[in-house]
Amino acid sequence: MRLTCQFEFKDKLKLPIHYNHMLQGLIYNNLTDEGLRTFLHEVGFKNGKRSYKMFTYSRLLGKYQVDKKDKIIIFESPVKLHISSLVDDFVNDLSTSLFKSEKLFLGNKEMELSSINAEYPIFKDRYAKIEMLSPIVIYSSIKLDGKNKTVYYSPKDSIFSKKIQENLIRKYTAIHGKTPEDDEFTIEYIGEKEPRKSVIRYHKTMINGYNGRYLIKGNTELIRLAYFVGIGSKNSQGFGCFKLQK
């Protein structure tokens, strides 16, 4: 299910430029089911040594200005936030908690939930045009000179689509306990300009991701999975959320 939440606040909302961790905190802090919160935060859905939280969220959407000197981003009211997951208990708990909360805080800023909508689109076609609502991230961890190194891939890299497909299949397997019978999935950048790179700090880690428009093709179950839990890596840190384009 996909939630679209609109928040209103007095004056301006001032956040650090790198605020993904604050949105994640807003989500976890408003889960009332302690067991579910602990499971998602500390365990997740396992596939070998990998663990997937199976939710994603967008960046804050609305009017804003960036103050490069003070390294903050300043939003005007209202702002929207998309939160998405295939874990029904997660979405139901979170939506109920947000709806009932008289006061919500992002950092030390008080906000009000002015509206919340739930969507559950049906995927019938083996293709979709999408636009990223938070950057898409895919990477490999390698050993170089005895040290661990993270290599991030660009949509222009020949291996990009294959890495995205492999990531989706691992998520599918983590949920269903088996690989999909139809594992076809490709992604192609279709923006008119070069893909725009975003470098975002999540706690002490710098993460490279890409925005823009893409064409995805393949198994409708994998397209559906990508929509609800995020495409690419680090979804629960605020990456890989997209909207469908007509």
UniProtKB/TrEMBL annotation:
<feature type="active site" description="Proton donor">
    <location>
        <position position="41"/>
    </location>
</feature>
<comment type="similarity">
    <text>Belongs to the CRISPR-associated protein Cas6/Cse3/CasE family.</text>
</comment>
<dbReference type="Pfam" id="PF21350">
    <property type="entry name" value="Cas6_I-A"/>
</dbReference>
<dbReference type="Pfam" id="PF01881">
    <property type="entry name" value="Cas_Cas6_C"/>
</dbReference>
<keyword id="KW-0694">RNA-binding</keyword>
<dbReference type="GO" id="GO:0003723">
    <property type="term" value="F:RNA binding"/>
</dbReference>
<dbReference type="InterPro" id="IPR045747">
    <property type="entry name" value="CRISPR-assoc_prot_Cas6_N_sf"/>
</dbReference>
<dbReference type="GO" id="GO:0016788">
    <property type="term" value="F:hydrolase activity, acting on ester bonds"/>
</dbReference>
<protein>
    <recommendedName>
        <fullName>CRISPR-associated endoribonuclease</fullName>
    </recommendedName>
</protein>
<comment type="function">
    <text>CRISPR (clustered regularly interspaced short palindromic repeat), is an adaptive immune system that provides protection against mobile genetic elements (viruses, transposable elements and conjugative plasmids). CRISPR clusters contain sequences complementary to antecedent mobile elements and target invading nucleic acids. CRISPR clusters are transcribed and processed into CRISPR RNA (crRNA).</text>
</comment>
<keyword id="KW-0051">Antiviral defense</keyword>
<feature type="domain" description="CRISPR associated protein Cas6 C-terminal">
    <location>
        <begin position="121"/>
        <end position="244"/>
    </location>
</feature>
<feature type="active site" description="Proton acceptor">
    <location>
        <position position="28"/>
    </location>
</feature>
<feature type="site" description="Transition state stabilizer">
    <location>
        <position position="53"/>
    </location>
</feature>
<dbReference type="InterPro" id="IPR049435">
    <property type="entry name" value="Cas_Cas6_C"/>
</dbReference>
<dbReference type="GO" id="GO:0051607">
    <property type="term" value="P:defense response to virus"/>
</dbReference>
<dbReference type="InterPro" id="IPR010156">
    <property type="entry name" value="CRISPR-assoc_prot_Cas6"/>
</dbReference>
